[in-house]
Fold this protein.
Amino acid sequence: MTQQNTGTAEGPDTGYVSGRYWHKIDDGRLQCDVCPRFCKLREGQRGLCFVRARAHDEIVLTTYGRSSGFCVDPIEKKPLNHFLPGTPVLSFGTAGCNLACKFCQNWDISKSRELDRLQARVSPQAIAERAVEEGSRSVAFTYNDPVIFLEYAVDVAEACHGHGIKTVAVTAAYVTEEPREEFFRHMDAANVDLKAFTERFYWKVCGGHLQPVLETIEYLKHETDVWFELTNLLIPGENDSEAEIDLMTQWIVEQLGPDVPLHFTAFHPDWKMMDKPCTPLRTLTRSRDIALKNGLRYVYTGNVHDFEGSSTYCHNCGDILIGRDWYELSTWNMAAANGQGSCSNCGTPVAGVFDSAPGHWGARRLPIHIAA
């Protein structure tokens, strides 16, 4: 039976908060049910994510309120191109991750085993209030996967919504059904990292499985109102073949529809994949061409300087709607009201969540400190 208790597990000084979604199995171990790893723990053991552990005969979240740092970013950096373009987003994460991607580009955070590197505990209310002070339209749970700190993310989201601040999840979507429902019920937008379209890649490179990710993506589309976009990091020789891109983009159109934005982003050597070269621009543009040919309307290239590949176009008349130079917005040829946008030239609706005018945050990255 899944537990859903809350509260501190080891007293007020530890920061350990009782976790949700676990149960005891026959041999006395406790099974964490947050993600498809189903880690089975004895007293004192931690799951692969590192932040969920067994203590005092329950599963606890060891990093509640503890952040690896706060920063105000452009929303396009998440990346989200169709969610309040040009606006600032207060971003943070914690330690740990429930996948083991060899190419992780935030490995110093997601693979951290030094909890004392994290900042002092910050309350959900303090984060929401600081977002208001900084003029951020949203708060993003990012840098590591927020599903592993679900309890904290949900509490922050509730505080943010109380102040009119929207919430964004940057996630690999490796989560099971019950926690998935609770987590995304509190999110306004998400960027889902679809790492590849083969089970081989997920198992050999990430230590996970593809099917749970696809199920979460389908859930977002068909059972929630969460605005979401997809990101696919292309690694030379691993997940960048024309055949794989063709199959993946066909699946997106058939299962999700043509309006889900897709970002092809460039890999650079990092962590345990230092032997791979950077992704050539031609691979990104080729993949974008395949996706557009298969019927996707909004396809982007990222981590490279490519005005054409980073801008938004009307799928009906072809006019440029939003011009982007890295994270700086230039052209704005959209009419928007009540969160909905349309092409200024032909009136065709544009999928997404839009203000009547773009924000002007630009490419700034502003590290901030939030007092406990």
